[in-house]
UniProtKB/TrEMBL annotation:
A GO MF label: metallopeptidase activity
UniProt cofactor(s): Zn(2+)
Enzyme Commission number(s): 3.4.24.-
Signal peptide: 1-23
Protein name: M48 family metalloprotease
Organism field: Qipengyuania profundimaris
Domain of life: Bacteria
Keyword terms, alphabetized: Hydrolase, Metal-binding, Metalloprotease, Protease, Signal, Zinc
Pfam family, one: LysM
Domain LysM residue range list: 439-486
InterPro entries, per database record: LysM, LysM_dom_sf, Mito/Outer_Membr_Metalloprot, Peptidase_M48
Length: 491
């Protein structure tokens, strides 16, 4: 959650149709993907590009970003969308979410977190080629009729509303508000479209001289990361929740990708890749706040809070979402005029254009020395009644933050401990927040997976994190001279 971000509200339908984010209609042969970028597509991409950069933490600069740009442009040329590398704009995004996407007009994106999960240049080219494949196959246009009734976040909001609020109009709008983190800013594609993009990505890899099997290995790493995240977060399912992932079910696509690449060979450029990403920021950027277990700490905003037991958090550039079986919440900010009661009322009023939502009452209190106000209301939704709560805090005369929480009726107390945990942090506490980075090391004689994993800057699951980060199976060992990644605290 960035200092400068307010709650991300309306977005044009044209942008939602432009986004080619990942998830994967229609079977049959892959359509002709050799048609070049049109003028209208170029204009659409140019208009969407600045907002996407903003919502995904901005574009990174420096040698790592230049390397990703080089690889991305080289693979994108294979699509036939443009005959020159300069026809494509490739951006490395400062986001801790595993994501990649492309939009019409030659704009290609990947997050630094997903790059850190990769283990060679062919995997990087494969991911970017997959995303370009969505654009080349005009998947956005093929889904336009279904998507044109939604704003960018409408589809995501509808998914949450189905889980918690039913299919009421109110449910969809409240769901949209809860799901405005940057990890949700891509349209979903059908499974068959995902497979089409995989096949196109493999084709591009082969044409560029890369090992096409890299598509399968990176999908496997993503599947293993999803499973690890589920264990760490205490979720029963081993896939990222449908409403919080733009890459559903990568595990089921691994074997398909392998079969498509059967008999093909090429280079991976593993050592070059690892040397170029050495030092890459990993996990949360302190400028956007960091999640440490159940704690969210923002050193620049000088605040912290604790998620309830059994809940997990996802940090976006404009909001932090808190997720659990008994409810969902979002921590964000809105314009503040110095009146907390008015602030709470305004948040409620903005939740629905169909209903004038008002809290039953607004209570004033103090939380750890912070002036605070809160209110709640009970709403009838398609799946029964739910409680909507807004809890706001004043940090300065012109600055306030709030939680928006939705729970099944009678379970609003699930978030009471979190509401009470909001607090200021000292300059010393803020200074103690040190980012994690990727450190590429060479395995020495006597090193083992266990000994190297002890260097991972985590208190839990060190071996599992090390294996997933390096694409190692449960029984695979390291060998002297091999380059591997560990995650350490930055200097």
């Amino acid at each position: 959650m960035s200092r400068s971000k307010s709650i991300f509200a309306a977005t044009t339908a044209s942008l939602s149709l432009a986004l080619a984010g990942c998830a994967a209609v229609g079977g049959g042969p892959i359509p002709d993907s050799s048609a070049p970028i049109t003028q209208s597509e170029a204009q659409m991409g140019a208009e969407a590009h600045p907002q996407l950069l903003s919502e995904f933490g901005g574009a990174m600069t420096g040698s790592q970003a230049q390397y990703v740009e080089q690889v991305g442009q080289n693979i994108a040329v294979q699509s036939g969308l443009g005959n020159a590398r300069s026809a494509f704009t490739v951006s490395l995004l400062n986001s801790s979410v595993n994501n990649a996407f492309a939009i019409p007009g030659g704009y290609v994106y990947t997050t630094r977190q997903l790059v850190a999960l990769m283990n060679n240049e062919a995997e990087l080219a494969g991911v970017l080629g997959h995303e370009v494949g969505h654009v080349a196959a005009r998947h956005s246009q093929r889904r336009q009729q279904a998507a044109q009734r939604n704003t960018l976040l409408g589809a995501a909001g509808a998914i949450l509303s189905g889980i918690l609020l039913g299919n009421s109009g109110l449910g969809q709008q409240v769901g949209q508000t809860l799901l405005q983190g940057s990890q949700l800013l891509t349209l979903r594609f059908s499974r068959s479209q995902e497979l089409e993009a995989d096949e196109l990505g493999i084709r591009y890899l082969n044409q560029a001289g890369y090992d096409p099997r890299a598509m399968a290995t990176v999908l496997n790493s993503l599947a293993q990361q999803n499973a690890l995240d589920a264990r760490v977060q205490g979720r029963d399912n081993a896939t990222v929740p449908e409403w919080a992932s733009t890459h559903p079910d990568p595990a089921s696509r691994v074997q398909t990708a392998l079969s498509k690449a059967q008999g093909m060979t090429g280079v991976t450029n593993r050592d070059t890749f690892l040397s170029r990403i050495d030092g890459l920021l990993y996990g949360d950027d302190p400028q956007q706040g960091v999640i440490e277990g159940r704690e969210f700490i923002h050193p620049e905003l000088r605040l912290a809070f604790t998620a309830p037991q059994g809940f997990y958090m996802v940090n976006g550039t404009s909001a932090v979402t808190i997720n659990g079986q008994s409810g969902r919440a979002q921590f964000t900010l809105a314009p503040y005029n110095g009146d907390l009661s008015s602030y709470v009322s305004t948040v409620f009023a903005n939740l629905s254009s169909e209903q004038n939502l008002r809290p039953q009452s607004i209570q004033r209190t103090t939380v750890n020395g912070l002036p605070a106000a809160y209110g709640s209301t009970r709403v009838q939704s398609g799946n029964g009644q739910v409680d909507v709560t807004v809890f706001a805090y004043e940090f300065a005369d012109d600055r306030a933050y709030h939680f928006l929480a939705i729970t099944p009726a009678g379970q609003a107390s699930s978030f009471n401990a979190m509401f009470s945990s909001m607090r200021r942090i000292s300059a010393q506490q803020a200074g103690n927040v040190i980012p994690r980075v990727v450190d590429v090391v060479t395995v020495r004689s006597g090193d083992t997976v266990a000994s190297l994993a002890r260097n991972m800057a985590y208190d839990d699951n060190q071996v599992a994190r090390f294996r997933v980060l390096n694409g190692l199976s449960s029984d695979e060992n390291v060998t002297p001279g091999q380059k591997v990644k560990v995650v350490v605290r930055g200097r």
